[in-house]
Amino acid sequence: MRRIRVGLFYSLLVCGLAAARSVEDGVYTKEQSNRGQKVYQEECMKCHGENGTGGEAAPPLVGVEFLPKWEGKTVAELFTRMRKTMPTDDPGNLSSRQYSDLVAYTSA
Prior knowledge:
Shape: globular
Order of helices and strands: HHHHH
CATH topology: Cytochrome Bc1 Complex, Chain D, domain 2
Helix content: 40-55%
CATH architecture: Orthogonal Bundle
Distance between the termini: 11 Å
Structural class: mainly alpha
């Protein structure tokens, strides 16, 4: 899956760091990203597609339709949006760790 770069990392939420760092600084571990990939396959792929290109019921998570909406926004904003709206049939039903892992997977 093509990864997205969305801005600053919300450090206290995911890693408990004192200062915000970017994803490019290696904020997320490979383990988090791998867990996020599993969550994506189990919870997100059915609507957003295998490669995040979207489907009939969900918008794409990659490319020209997605990137401009998130450019300049923080990873915390992405986390909050995911938690409030996904999965669409039961928003907020995943654990904080699962949402954080999804952010790691889609942002790394």
